[in-house]
Amino acid sequence: MKRWLKISLKIIGGLLVLLILAWCGAAYYINKNNEAILAKILDQVNAKVNGTVEVSHMETTLLKGFPGISVSLKNVSLRDSLWSKHKKELFRAKDIDVSLNALSLIIGTINIRKVAINNANIYLYTDSTGYTNTSMFRTKDKKKAVENDDSASSLQIRIIDLNKVDLVIDNQKRFKLFSFYVDELKGKIKYPLGRWDGNFKLKTKVRSFAFNTRKGSFLKDKTIAGNMTAHYDDESEAIIIDQKPIKIGEDTFSIGASINIAENKSAFSIAIKADQILYRNVAQILAPNISEKLFKFGIEKPMDVTASIIDNGDKNSSDPLINVKMTVKNNNVSIPSGELKDCSFIGYFSNQDTTSKPIGDANSIIRFYGLAANYYNAPIRIDTFTVSNLEKPLAQGLITSKFDLSKLNGSFEEESFKFEKGTADLSLFCQADIDNFLFTKPVLHGKIIIKDATINYLPRNLKLVNSSLDLNFNQKDLNITNSRFQLGKSILSMNCSIENFLNFYYTDPEKIEARVNLSSPNLNLTEFMPFLGPRQAKRKKTSSKNAIKEASEQLSAALEASKVHLQLNVKQAAYNKFIARNLNAHISLIGNGVYFNKITVQHAGGHVNFSGKVEQLGAINKMQLNANIAKVSIKEFFYAFDNFGQQSITNKNLKGFLSANVNASGNVTAKGNIAPKSMYGKVNFTLDKAALVGFEPLEKVGKFVFRSRNLSNVQLEKLNGTLTLRGDKVDISPMKINSTALNFDVKGVYGFNSGTNIALDIPLRDPKKSADIIDKEERELARMKGIVLHLKAVDEDGELKIRWNKKKDREANK
């Protein structure tokens, strides 16, 4: 063996022997001076605290701390000076292992190298007045502390090892509660001048992390694990935790913090960053008052999040300042009103929007910048969208979009609307309250432009083609301009104004009153008959719901419930056989009624004014009609209205001009046809320059008598009469009919199928014999001179028969 190696081994051996001897001496010293050493340790500690530190006894554990000397402190307790009042013990452990520097013991000082705490409880308590039991660490006797404070005896712990420790920070003044079960905390601490630096390994379960106990805990039941680096500066009295990755549950966050432990401060700030983390996992670590709201939303793929939590130590505020930034790219976002697909935005949250106002929900705000997404297949763009005052949330933002209407078909309720073509271009500034995460009381400014649209309104089986309109929203009002609608061959231009539309749309749609001006060069009224029919029966709804379907249902319901006042001006209108010119109408659609307030038309060479209503009941609807007819061609008039549902006197039997007042009611079908035998009411009429052509009862009289006279074409003088409509019968009030063929009196009942009983008093005298009598009274007396035939027309076996009207029958029917 070489000489230098032998010398080296001897030196090392000697040093080892000296170390063992020193260690044995220190161990002997501790065993011999157990109580004195413990008293010195307690004296050092108690000199630095404002309270009491108690240890029942100390045992030497020789091998644990080699080459240092380890002791085990039993039944360790730390109590502040006011413990007897609040009973919150700051520290309690059955066993603390302390590793001492052996050399320091030999020279008469205590230098603690390592502290290991197992199965302990730490309770940092602040009462409602602001007093805290950690104040025991404020020096109570500065003179004594100075006497005991030297570089050799300063209480500096180099290694910390905590296992199964309950740590609670309870601040009742500011309603904060932080509770941890520390499964493991291992760390090494260095003490450069005026500070300390530590590296720690942590694994703990969060039982409570409540910044405000009235609102619940963050990180509830979450496990936190990772490595931390911390620093403390004596001058600033602040602990700085470097921002490093740490696991919370299964997710990795980068977390850093600053904690001010100066007297009467307790300020802190926490910085958090997470890349590509799931939204749901973020929501789960927040307090219940926040997470239960966030769970109303969803973000499918991971996103980037940064946040800061800052408490400036203000004793008047129980909540910290929270700022959050969220970056979402090409994601699918679910919201209570549907889903935003391929969505990107940058979102910000702060619970102090205005710095001069206190932190809280009322001063909170959410901002979205550069939001782009497809909402029910419609691309939307929002430069800035905000939700402020989370106590009474108010949302506002400018929404723009341009899309094909057909893209909405999969989103609308199938029984409401269907789009075949057309485009929509919208630019709307929206402001609305948020109630249960849905917009209420919206205020809109802006415009929606629809062009070249084909729209099917399924409840009424209406199809609008080549249609365009501009919807202008002005706060709560809606105005529709530049509108063109084509229904079949009918083309209309429309302007519409609806006051307080948005107020009533969501709450009282029956209060909506739309004032609509319509004009058309040519209108086919039969194409609008679906308005008279019932709504199409809805198919059974599926369980799937979305906001657009709900909106379409609501829109459909609002359209049916609202009041619509139509002012219609048409150059020419057609309804089946009825042709009207210069139609001017004021029509109201209210509930299940169509009200014809005032309609004037030119028809059959004359004028017709009428009013009335149709009550929608289903396939058969009730109708009321009041009409004034002035000098219309009776032939054309009867033809236009299908002889009013009767076949006794038809347009083929009539010539001349009719003036009449009609007050009647009846039934009309969903297709707009008058139901047979349904009319009731009165018709007061005047016939001028009239002729009765091919009237069957009169022709039968001609076969019975007056065969030499032409009763197939009877020219009438001016005739006034009254007809009473009674369903399948018409009461004919007594009338004196003077014609070129004969004069006769008529009264009775005409039945459409049965019940006809018409009395005819026919003088045989030829009317031509009285033609030269000028005096009207004398001519009237002369018309019934001579032989008078008393006949009656009655039904027999479904055929009209002419019988003699016997005297007793005539007297019975007077």
From TrEMBL:
InterPro entries: AsmA (IPR007844), AsmA-related (IPR052894). Residues 1-186 form the AsmA domain. Pfam families: AsmA. It comes from the Bacteria. One of its GO terms (cellular component) is plasma membrane. GO terms for biological process: regulation of protein targeting to membrane. This is AsmA family protein.
